[in-house]
Amino acid sequence: ARITLLPGDGIGPEIVAEAKRVLDTIAEKYSHQFETPSCPMGGNAIDEFGDPLPPQTLETCKASQAILLGAVGGPKWDDPSAKTRPEAGLLQIRKELGLFANLRPIKPYSELLDASPLKREIIEGTDILFFRELTGGIYFGESGRMEHPDGEKAFSVMTYTTSEIARIVRLAAESARNRGGKLTSVDKANVLEVSRLWRQVAADVVKNEFPDIEYEVVLVDAMAMHLISRPSDFDVVVTGNMFGDILTDEGSMLPGSLGLLPSASLGESGPGLYEPIHGSAPDIAGQGIANPLATILATAMLLRHSLQLETEAKAVESAVDRVLAAGHRTADIAAGGNPISTSEMGSFVL
Amino acid sequence: ARITLLPGDGIGPEIVAEAKRVLDTIAEKYSHQFETPSCPMGGNAIDEFGDPLPPQTLETCKASQAILLGAVGGPKWDDPSAKTRPEAGLLQIRKELGLFANLRPIKPYSELLDASPLKREIIEGTDILFFRELTGGIYFGESGRMEHPDGEKAFSVMTYTTSEIARIVRLAAESARNRGGKLTSVDKANVLEVSRLWRQVAADVVKNEFPDIEYEVVLVDAMAMHLISRPSDFDVVVTGNMFGDILTDEGSMLPGSLGLLPSASLGESGPGLYEPIHGSAPDIAGQGIANPLATILATAMLLRHSLQLETEAKAVESAVDRVLAAGHRTADIAAGGNPISTSEMGSFVL
Ligand SMILES: CC(C)[C@H](C(=O)O)[C@@H](O)C(=O)O
Ligand SMILES: CC(C)[C@H](C(=O)O)[C@@H](O)C(=O)O
Question: In what residue span(s) does the Isopropylmalate dehydrogenase-like domain sit (chains A, B) (predicted)?
Fold first, then answer.
């Protein structure tokens, strides 16, 4: 199988290097052949090619079974008036590969619960899988500016079609059926017409195809509260692109460390894209102290969802479990203890 | 002064009744004349007039110095296919009175900190004042549905003009100047054109008119994280209607009880609207056990912002402080202790 690596910027190359070692070891132990080309993307690609997603990178990605991304961006490319920015590459690859479903598991590790800003009794037992729609909504609707008596007027259109809603709800409902059996759809149907269509289509899909699962709808503002006050009440949560962006980031605070959270972006067919949810952390780049575990856990998701290698995925996840149980910690989760380096952490997982 | 009461639905009438007693007492003690007409609004107005905001109610509101709202809505009026809903009245009154600025203080009471889902060391010292834009953005942009090869397509437009952005940022910046001196503007300028205009106008206003305050911009997804992980780093936060809806509700979880949080909605001139941020709690309506303190604190904001009665506002707030310090608790904040009733709580404040 071909797995394209997009190390990206900042700590990206360091953490992807550890994930590659994990892939190499899996290949060896389980007798697979993994080809792992590495391509420029993000700020480094802007520097080299003036384009955050060069055509050659996109071609290589399209000809892969899966893509592993480190992180992109950094202050160097943050100028709002710049011609292009690393984020543009991210949005483009999602759209070009049709990665309409962003999966984000939120499941705290019990050893690290004390690092959570939430009280233990609130967070304990939490196990949420978010499905965020990723190629529609206000991210990809029409937008622009016009003259206005006041000065200027700018607009961005949030839009969804029946089939865009149906396919992400279907995927989420299938997953709910295989997990805790409960699906929560989040919208703002008391105000937005686009949410009213969302609510209607979601209800139809569930009623017709998943009558066996428990189903509820929650308003986005209420969900922002419930996520903090009773996170353990949720199982699978499905929502649109913008609401998902906000809620999954809010949810990512629950476990107490961003350094352990992976995400997967999947399409109807074709390669999936896997990445840690944390950023490129330019402040610690090049120091060999970044936590590679989220990227390694993203690699486990890659093995599971794009290569159908469940045993191998589980092997990686249980290695991470054991490494944490043994007390090994990089600086971000060391809480005053003695931190190990990026590559030491990688070696313990191997 | 005329202060129009809109008791609304559910527990609304019970909590507004206590606030009215507070207003009566303030009038007596400080020799003011308050006229307090009470008008139908919300579900009860739909039942009686088929309209959540009857013209007569709107007229009375317009002819007032200030408006005190209990809460509107309930399962009885929740049918999405209904011709009108209580929320429509809320959106209409905001628009009709030009209430473009929604102020929401988030300041936990130290006696109640243990009720917070967040750890004490995270929440301690938090004192945020949100300014949410309330009459623009995606709440009031064009919206609709059209046929689509897939089925249907729905859209809702998020839009802002230079002056809509400038006036709310100006108000927030003025408030920052009088408080901790720091302003945070929240947007999604890395994706949305409308946010790029927001960011540009906000920066201009601050640079030209408030060069003395500390100013930062934060992306909405990052803000959803920071609010949980380091809430005490913020002072005044300004953002658009939709982002504000989500973030203020998230923030409302921090103090551990919705029952103590007031909000004010202000326009350029004309009456302001004051209300507790909690809902109509139909499950406990009519039992006389609801917490009236948020509504009483909203009344203090009313005295301060619409009637310029700072001494009277402080008197109400310090009465609430003392009642809490003395250990009086309604059921929602009793945490196993012996709860008092709505009217007992009102009497203690008096
Ligand atoms: C970088 C940005 C464009 C992106 C988004 O908003 O989708 C990020 O926040 C994410 O969630 O992957
Ligand atoms: C009821 C609803 C329309 C309203 C809003 O979204 O503005 C509410 O959530 C609020 O925040 O006041």
Answer: 2-349
Please state the length of chain A.
350
pLDDT (tens digit per residue) in A269-303: 999 999 999 999 999 999 999 999 999 999 999 99
Binding-site residues of A for substrate sit at 94, 104, 132, 221
For A121, residues 6+ apart whose C-beta sits below 8 A from its C-beta are none
CATH of domain B106-257: 3.40.718.10
In the beta sheet, which residues pair with residue A219? Answer: A187
Q: Which amino acid makes up residue B213?
A: I
Rounded Cα–Cα distance for residues B42 and B34 (Å): 24
What integer pLDDT is reported at residue A73 of this predicted model? 94
Domain ranges of chain B: 1-97+270-350, 106-257
Which CATH superfamily hosts domain A1-97+270-350? Isopropylmalate Dehydrogenase (3.40.718.10)
What is the spatial order of strands in the sheet that A143-148 belongs to? A143-148, A151-161, B151-161, B143-148
Query: What is the CATH superfamily name and number for domain A101-260?
Result: Isopropylmalate Dehydrogenase (3.40.718.10)
Write the CB contacts of A22 (distance below 8 Å, at least 6 apart in sequence). A296, A299, A316, A346, A349, A350
pLDDT in tens, B235-281: 999 999 999 999 999 999 999 889 999 999 999 999 999 999 999 99
Q: Please count the other Cβ atoms lying within 10 Å of the Cβ belonging to residue A65.
A: 17
B304 and B313 Cβ atoms separated by less than 8 Å: yes
B336: confidence class by pLDDT, cuts 50, 70, 90: confident
String of DSSP letters for A27-83: HHHTT---B--B---SHHHHHHHS-SS-HHHHHHHHTSSEEEEEE---GGG--TTSS
Q: How far apart are CA A271 and CA A42, in angstroms?
A: 19
| Fold match flag (A1-97+270-350 vs A101-260) | yes
In this structure, the number of other CB atoms found within 10 A of the CB of residue A93 comes to 22
Residues of B within 8 A of A253 (CB-CB) are 225, 228-229
Catalytic residue among A188, A215, A274, A332: A188
Residue with tokens 């949560």: A237
Average pLDDT over residues B89-100: 96
Tokens of A115: 């690092």
Token pair recorded at residue A350: 């191997």
Annotated catalytic residue within A153, A221, A314, A321: A221
Task: Assess whether the C-beta atom of A190 lies below 6 angstroms from ligand 2.
Answer: yes
Q: Give the mutation target among B87, B100, B139 for probing the ligand 2 site: most ligand atoms within 8 A of CB.
A: B87
Tokens 């992109």 locate to A72
